[in-house]
Design brief:
Catalyzes the NAD-dependent decarboxylation of UDP-glucuronic acid to UDP-xylose. Necessary for the biosynthesis of the core tetrasaccharide in glycosaminoglycan biosynthesis. It is found in: Golgi apparatus, Golgi stack membrane. It is a single-pass type II membrane protein. Its main location: Golgi. By secondary structure, the chain is an alpha/beta fold. The protein has two domains: 211 residues, NAD(P)-binding Rossmann-like Domain (Rossmann fold), CATH 3.40.50; 72 residues, UDP-galactose 4-epimerase, domain 1. Helix content is 48%, strand content 13%. It has nine helices and 13 strands. Strands 3-2-1-4-5-6-11 form a seven-stranded parallel beta sheet, sandwiched between helices. The radius of gyration is 39 Å and the shape is elongated. Bound molecules: nicotinamide-adenine-dinucleotide.
Length: 384
């Protein structure tokens, strides 16, 4: 009896111990699982923090660059006048990325008009108009005028054509197509949309003139099969087309016969006398004068030409108009002026400054042009 009661007591105590032990084991297990969980979380959080700071390290310089780009995009455009809807014109400039065209673009943009430049970049460059890219009044279209163009405009300045002998002789057939088919296309556009068209013609329509100076009623003296015919005859037929469209279709036309022009953005290696002299002077070479140097030339500064083009476009003069500097100088005088870098000659100075910058730019790009010979006149070559 006593031993049975004793056994029951012992087994009751063991059961209680067992329960206690099981309880402790459970608590220990839960505690260790919780500990692992907390540990893993802190490792994970640590890892996330490290990744975040790594990403931040990479992204911050990019953010900086975007801020810089945004700053440069909030562009310092040249100042533009505000024009009311009534006065603001939609203006197309073909060849607007070229020497004259880009200055005309500047003037018309600053006057507050909406300007569309069309250019195939044969001799023009985006650099010439890049300071307008992004402006709400400006558009640049890469297009060849030999193909038709459909656009709504009020005025067309038709300048597209290579202008210097090496450029227009490079591909005479293309020069002819640009001046004939290109001009037809622009006149067709002017007719369709009722725009006024100004043709940038040239003093070369007078050819090798027999009268000096040439007035607009002189018909010229051009060799139709000579090396310059693609340009001279191309411009002559372009003028003919303008007046045919005026008479037959009532298109308003203006014809500017442009004489020698110089200034920033002119082509450095176009073989013409001003660019040759400036290049040679800057490169420390003697200036080459063909013949006696007593032959005379007149050069107008590009901003004068641009003012003349705009005045002609907005005038009621529909007959051809010569645009040039009436003041003639001998070639020797020009050579002397450029050689001495005469400070009074503001226009020449600006052109010289531009050429210096271009030489620096091209030196960095490992290319320095040599001047091509100017159109050769009879006589011997002299160096000043
Ligand atoms: N600069 C002068 O001294 C002078 C003298 C007389 C006449 N002009 C006339 O003035 C105009 C402009 O001359 P510039 O000196 O600025 O010459 P440029 O070569 O600098 O400009 C001509 C522009 O026309 C573009 N162009 C040529 N063919 C084209 C085509 N098929 N389609 C679209 N664009 C084309 C060229 O890429 C270039 O941007 C020309 O028509 C030229 O005959 C200039």
């Amino acid at each position: 009896m006593v031993s049975k009661a004793l056994l029951r007591l012992v087994s009751a105590i063991n059961r209680r111990r067992m329960k206690l032990l099981l309880g402790i084991a459970l608590v220990a297990y839960v505690a260790s699982v919780w500990g692992n969980f907390v540990n893993m979380r802190s490792i994970q959080e640590n890892g996330e923090l490290k990744i975040e700071s790594k990403i931040e390290e990479i992204v911050e310089p990019l953010r900086e660059k975007i801020r810089d780009l945004e700053k440069s995009f909030t562009q310092k455009y040249p100042p533009v006048k505000f024009l009311s809807e009534k006065d603001r014109k939609r203006i197309l400039i073909t060849g607007g990325a070229g020497f004259v065209g880009s200055h005309l673009t500047d003037k018309l943009m600053m006057d507050g008009h909406e300007v569309t430049v069309v250019d195939n970049f044969f001799t023009g460059r985006k650099r010439n108009v890049e300071h307008w890219i992004g402006h709400e009044n400006f558009e640049l279209i890469n297009h060849d005028v030999v193909e038709p163009l459909y656009i709504e405009v009020d005025q067309i300045y038709h300048l597209a054509s290579p202008a210097s002998p090496p450029n227009y002789m490079y591909n005479p057939i293309k020069t002819l197509k640009t001046n004939t088919i290109g001009t037809l296309n622009m006149l067709g556009l002017a007719k369709r949309v009722g725009a006024r068209l100004l043709l940038a013609s040239t003093s070369e329509v007078y050819g090798d003139p027999e009268v000096h100076p040439q007035s607009e009623d002189y018909w010229g003296h051009v060799n139709p099969i000579g090396p310059r015919a693609c340009y001279d005859e191309g411009k002559r037929v372009a003028e003919t087309m303008c007046y045919a469209y005026m008479k037959q279709e009532g298109v308003e036309v203006r014809v500017a016969r442009i004489f020698n022009t110089f200034g920033p953005r002119m082509h450095m290696n176009d073989g013409r006398v001003v660019s040759n002299f400036i290049l040679q002077a800057l490169q420390g070479e003697p200036l080459t004068v063909y013949g006696s140097g007593s032959q005379t030339r007149a050069f107008q500064y590009v901003s004068d030409l641009v003012n003349g083009l705009v005045a002609l476009m907005n005038s009621n003069v529909s007959s051809p108009v010569n645009l040039g500097n009436p003041e003639e100088h001998t070639i020797l005088e020009f050579a002397q002026l450029i050689k001495n870098l005469v400070p009074l000659e503001e226009g020449l100075n600006k052109a010289i400054h531009y050429f210096r910058k271009e030489l620096e730019y091209q030196a960095n790009n490992q290319y320095i042009p040599k001047p091509k010979p100017a159109r050769i006149k009879k006589g011997r070559t002299r160096h000043t």
